[in-house]
Amino acid sequence: MLKTLVSVLYGWIGVVVVMFLASLVLTLLLRFSSLGESTLEMATLFISFIALFTGGLIAGLKAKHKGILVGSITSLLFTFIVFCYRFLGLHLGFSVVELVNHIAYLLLAIIGAIIGVNLSYGEESID
Q1: Distance CA 4, CA 2 (A)
Q2: What angle do CA 107, 52, 15 make, to 5 degrees?
Q3: What residues have CB less than 8 Å from 88, skipping those under 6 apart?
Q4: Which residue numbers in the chain have pLDDT < 50?
Q5: Is 66 helix (H, G, I), strand (E, B) or coil?
């Protein structure tokens, strides 16, 4: 169980790093180009997809087993934090579109974790 939690932590670090780097790039693009709001919304969604897939992949590589569980925990923790921010900070709930987005995040994190587990299959495990 501890190995699963540590791998989820590594996956979360991966999500945060991807989100931070992407926000830095988007900030620079907004400042020095004529990037519009509609383009920014689609770019943010795409970057979120990449971040959750990458987080699931990192978690799966670290866990080396239970890819579906590790990917699910990684994604559900992300959804929980976003929901808490929206509900407690903005006094908003999830709309249907956001619910569909978070289901896509869940599926992408699971797929990433499954791929990560399969990529780590050939490695020697030192436990």
Answers
A1: 5
A2: 160
A3: none
A4: 127
A5: coil
